[in-house]
């Protein structure tokens, strides 16, 4: 499966949802996640993300993100259409460890 990682937080560009053939993105307030049991591993979303937030879980070290995607991919509402990104999305692009700094 592919997973959405830290870089999505507060960027939430939503380009990813437009290309996913199985519509397996789910929306939280500050980020999206992928439902790992629905993702067919096609990889088309990875290059579409301007924040480079989407990675294959084979990358290693992504256990925490896989768990988070699995948890919220089964709780949050499905999203299939791109909307306007947050006004300050570009300011958060590339900021490190957003999860630790903002939400813990
Ligand atoms: Fe959707 Fe393919 Fe990305 Fe999985 S890898 S989330 S199926 S676009
Ligand atoms: Fe997030 Fe990138 Fe999609 S910032 S909403 S994973 S396009």
TrEMBL record:
PANTHER family: FERREDOXIN, OXIDOREDUCTASE
Record bears the keyword Transport: yes
InterPro entries linked to this entry: 4Fe4S_Fe-S-bd, 4Fe4S_Fe_S_CS, 7Fe_ferredoxin, Fd_C, FdxA, RnfB_subfamily
Any single Pfam family the record assigns to this protein: DUF3470
Keyword hit for Iron: yes
Comp. bias intervals (Basic and acidic residues): 81-100
Protein name from the UniProt record: Ferredoxin
Domain 4Fe-4S ferredoxin-type residues, every copy: 1-29, 30-59
Cofactor annotation: [3Fe-4S] cluster; [4Fe-4S] cluster
Region entry Disordered, spans: 80-104
Alphabetically ordered keywords of this record: 3Fe-4S, 4Fe-4S, Electron transport, Iron, Iron-sulfur, Metal-binding, Repeat, Transport
């Amino acid at each position: 499966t592919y997973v959405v990682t830290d870089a999505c937080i507060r960027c939430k560009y939503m380009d990813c949802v437009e290309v996913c053939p199985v519509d397996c993105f789910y929306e939280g307030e500050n980020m999206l996640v992928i439902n790992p049991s629905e993702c067919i591993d096609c990889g088309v979303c990875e290059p579409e993300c301007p924040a480079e937030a989407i990675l294959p879980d084979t990358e290693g070290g992504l256990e925490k993100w896989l768990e988070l995607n699995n948890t919220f991919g089964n709780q949050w509402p499905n999203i299939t259409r791109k909307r306007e990104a947050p006004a300050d999305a570009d300011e958060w692009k590339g900021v490190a460890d957003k999860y630790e700094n903002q939400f813990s």
